[in-house]
């Protein structure tokens, strides 16, 4: 416990001695320089804060405008385009090559095409299943009305 008290007293003595020494050794030139620096800071601070506020507001407006356009997928954030196309779209050619752009990974084109085909087949199978179940329900409704007599 004595060690901590000694460290605190030594630290206090050094701080007071350094502050007294600093102000005692100040010349008129150093005082004028200090006043100029503090005054310039006091005069320019409001303008700097306004400038920073405008920049922050502009950035916030850009972010909110982008949020209004729609949600961004994680792949778009990484610079990649969406890999899954809707069933109505049968374009297997790469749009990136036509536009001169390149995605993050140019390899695996065949794998992406295979994946698109698998997803397309799954969607078509689900649509067929739903269509058949709907037809069966309609047939049951018609049969119900026909067999009422």
Automatic annotation (TrEMBL):
<protein>
    <submittedName>
        <fullName>Protein trafficking Pga2</fullName>
    </submittedName>
</protein>
<dbReference type="GO" id="GO:0015031">
    <property type="term" value="P:protein transport"/>
</dbReference>
<keyword id="KW-0472">Membrane</keyword>
<feature type="region of interest" description="Disordered">
    <location>
        <begin position="128"/>
        <end position="149"/>
    </location>
</feature>
<dbReference type="Pfam" id="PF07543">
    <property type="entry name" value="PGA2"/>
</dbReference>
<feature type="compositionally biased region" description="Acidic residues">
    <location>
        <begin position="89"/>
        <end position="99"/>
    </location>
</feature>
<keyword id="KW-0812">Transmembrane</keyword>
<feature type="region of interest" description="Disordered">
    <location>
        <begin position="60"/>
        <end position="114"/>
    </location>
</feature>
<dbReference type="InterPro" id="IPR011431">
    <property type="entry name" value="Trafficking_Pga2"/>
</dbReference>
<keyword id="KW-1133">Transmembrane helix</keyword>
<feature type="transmembrane region" description="Helical">
    <location>
        <begin position="31"/>
        <end position="48"/>
    </location>
</feature>
């Amino acid at each position: 416990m004595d060690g901590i008290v000694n460290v605190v007293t030594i630290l206090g003595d050094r701080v007071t001695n350094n502050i007294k020494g600093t102000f005692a050794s100040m010349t008129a030139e150093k005082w004028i320089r200090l006043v100029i620096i503090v005054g310039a800071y006091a005069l320019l601070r409001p303008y700097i804060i306004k400038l920073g506020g405008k920049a922050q507001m502009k950035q916030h407006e850009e972010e909110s405008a982008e949020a209004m356009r729609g949600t961004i997928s994680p792949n778009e954030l990484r610079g990649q385009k969406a890999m899954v196309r809707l069933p109505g779209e049968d374009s297997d050619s790469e749009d990136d090559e036509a536009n001169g752009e390149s995605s993050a990974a140019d390899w695996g084109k065949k794998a992406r095409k295979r994946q698109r085909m698998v997803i397309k087949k799954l969607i078509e199978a689900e649509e067929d299943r739903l269509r058949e179940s709907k037809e069966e329900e309609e047939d049951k409704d018609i049969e119900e009305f026909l067999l009422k007599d």
